[in-house]
Amino acid sequence: MEQINILSWALRQRMDDLVTVNVKGVYMVSTPAGLTPLVLLCDGDRALPIYVGIAEATAIGSILNHEITPRPMIHDLVISLLECLDAQIKWVLIDNLDDGIYYARLIIQKDGVQRELDARPSDCIALALRANAEVLVRRSVITKAALDKKDIEELTYLEL
């Protein structure tokens, strides 16, 4: 029991450095490679842009638009699998940005035990939205990469 309390304290200390963000939507931006989807995570007046692939954009956009696909997508399957195992997604954490690449973790809980899994931010976001779990971002990542919301007003919302 003492070990659980120590781990809980350590987790709370790390949580002080985290910011809860909202998934604003999936947008298209022009890049040298052509139109590219990105997900915007918002915290107040700041927006964190994360480039994603078209499949991930579709997965995130479909849940944001409350669309039901005729067959389960992979993220739906993962949620069903977790439910069958009596496990749940507690939250997702985008905790690092290195050389333009975001890193994230999926925090899953089963029987009071939490596990962290390394995952792509786009998959974490798609799963968090399906599980109604929080999306958290380390403050240092927001400081490094967030834009002012007024700088992104010209983005085109992706209609799926």
Summarize this entry quickly.
Helix content is 34%, strand content 42%. The chain is of the alpha+beta class and 160 residues long.
Give descriptors for this structure.
about 40% strand, Bifunctional nuclease domain, 9 strands, alpha+beta, 5 helices, nine-stranded mixed β-sheet
Task: Walk me through the structure.
By secondary structure, the protein is of the alpha+beta class. The protein has one domain: Bifunctional nuclease domain (Roll), CATH 3.10.690. The chain contains five helices and nine strands. Strands 1, 2, 3, 4, 5, 6, 7, 8 and 9 form a nine-stranded mixed beta sheet that branches. The model has no long low-confidence stretch (mean pLDDT 88).
CATH superfamily: Bifunctional nuclease domain
Q: What is the level 1 CATH name?
A: Alpha Beta
Strand content: 35-45%
Proper CATH architecture: Roll
Q: Tell me the total number of β-strands.
A: 9
- Compute the average pLDDT: 88
Overall structural domain count = 1
Instruction: Please write the string of helix (H) and strand (E) elements.
Output: HEEEHHEEEHEHEE
Please give the oligomerization state of what you see. single chain
Helical amount: 25-40%
Shape: globular
Identify low-pLDDT runs. none
Distance N to C terminus: 49 Å
Main sheet, how many strands, which sense, barrel? 9 strands, mixed
- Helix count from the secondary structure assignment: 5
- Please identify the structural class as seen in this structure: alpha+beta
The Rg value, from CA coordinates, equals 16 Å
CATH topology: Bifunctional nuclease domain
